[in-house]
């Protein structure tokens, strides 16, 4: 999304702000605070929009610096999911949840099941899945308390690890970016820097290596880097993300947490293309213009990383991997369409993507005003 910052003071002012005081699309339908003292659960479920259907989005388990930071993250991520699902052509709205705390220290069966009961209490308005800090096994536990969960294990009828098609979709968007910039959809011989080689990043590296790219990686986890190096000895390792950004690159792929593109990183980027898996890569409004002014082609994050939500959304109707992969492959064509619209309108690709997503939410969402027998509005 092009707006992931909070200019007003306090998170409540953002939630309750009048429409005239908010950025386009920055009003949320519902924010739920979930607390269970016995298990230590503290969570936030943010529902941004159900204009296109139930709000689908993952559950992030993270040790936030403050509860307000957690709410802000949930709001930003939920908004991004609305745009991601709309642009992916899914009949789903956008929502996101965060569980506050270090998952390596406080994650338990009881805590996850308590969280599942809060999800169930929303009666289908929100459907959860995996995100940073949560895994397929966690979704299986949560599913013992709620029917509104995707990304479960294949043995439980689920889609499994959504990182697989997330990485595949990012690779398709990167191929389209290469086509637009260099006239070929191949990354062969291109130097690609991947910041974050965890759940999604290591799959992306595999695609890049197979395509003949020269890959440079970095991650705060030494184990994650070692895993990639063991599988792909040709991969280079940068000391840290600032070093990677300044390295001689053709493509930069942010695949960790949000805010990777900011006032400090954009001026020193050497890459001609930015295309990665991280959510909310733009630290604040205006960064997309800064990238464009430097001649850097930015692939909107929620366009590139939609493969994962396409995968888990397919589970809702009975999962078929090949069908989901075929849908995720269309990210290539959508990316080219966004670049063409951006050039035609004279705007950055992030703005063109926002406009197309907002158009679909408005036009299709309006159909809910046509009431069906036995239904209520919305």
TrEMBL record:
Q: What is its EC number?
A: 1.4.1.23
Which pathway, per its entry?
A: Amino-acid degradation; L-valine degradation
Q: What class of enzyme is it?
A: oxidoreductase
Q: Which Gene3D superfamilies match?
A: Leucine Dehydrogenase, chain A, domain 1, NAD(P)-binding Rossmann-like Domain
What keywords are annotated for this sequence in UniProt? Branched-chain amino acid catabolism, NAD, Oxidoreductase
Superkingdom, according to UniProt? Bacteria
Query: How is the subunit organization of this protein annotated in UniProt?
Result: Homodimer.
Spell out the family assignment given in the record's similarity comment.
Answer: Belongs to the Glu/Leu/Phe/Val dehydrogenases family.
PANTHER family according to UniProt: LEUCINE DEHYDROGENASE, VALINE DEHYDROGENASE
Q: What is this protein called?
A: Valine dehydrogenase
This protein's species is Streptacidiphilus monticola
What taxonomic classification does the UniProt entry list for its organism? Bacteria, Bacillati, Actinomycetota, Actinomycetes, Kitasatosporales
